[in-house]
What does this fold into?
Amino acid sequence: MSTALLLIDLQNDFCPGGALAVQEGDQVIAVANQAIEVCRRRGWPVVASQDWHPASHRSFAIHAGEAPGTLGTLEGLPQVWWPVHCVQDQPGADFHPDLNLAGIDQVFRKGQNPDIDSYSAFFDNGRRTETELDSWLKGKGITTLVVMGLATDYCVKYSVLDALALGYTTSLITEGCRGVNLQPDDSERAFEEMQQQGAHLIALKSFEMGAH
Ligand code: VGL
Ligand code: ZN
It folds into this structure.
């Protein structure tokens, strides 16, 4: 019954001023740093995902010739066309400057294949390829995940649903998440869907007091 903290895409481009800014995205950084401290005290691993696209990524609206935020298809999968974001080695792909990087044990990058998007920290959207995250966690005997980050309605949601499908007991620190909300209630619906699939929605305070 070992636990790890999974931080999703706490990167500049998802924060105010970034290319795919999520409202109040920067406000979750302080939550992340507090959750990291809790884990450091308890000796629990902390891992982070990082959206890491080549400039040629076909999820970028400019390559599809479509308007950002509209829906199309990519390699047979539904695809939201995104603004150019989290391009490898660009400042937008960096973690937020206030994030306690020293407190993170391992980073898992995703989205490198230009032909397919990769919301989940575990698999690409077609479940065709897998990151090293699951094997890393299994190697450490992790059975429980506490998750938070950006964005609630995309990378957080798909990571949590995959974690549950892979058999992890999974909790979500709700105030550590913010959503894109192409539709105003997308984040609310994402929280409901994750909860329906078995995720525990918790507050940072209860995590600090031992709940997960
Ligand atoms: C994300 C859209 C595109 C996310 C990443 O981190 O939620 N969303 N790439
Ligand atoms: Zn992306």
Notes: Residues 51, 53, 85-86, 111 surround zinc ion (ligand 2) (CB under 6 Å). DSSP finds six helices and eight strands in the chain. Residues 2-52+86-208 form a domain with the Rossmann fold fold (CATH 3.40.50.850). The mean pLDDT is 98.
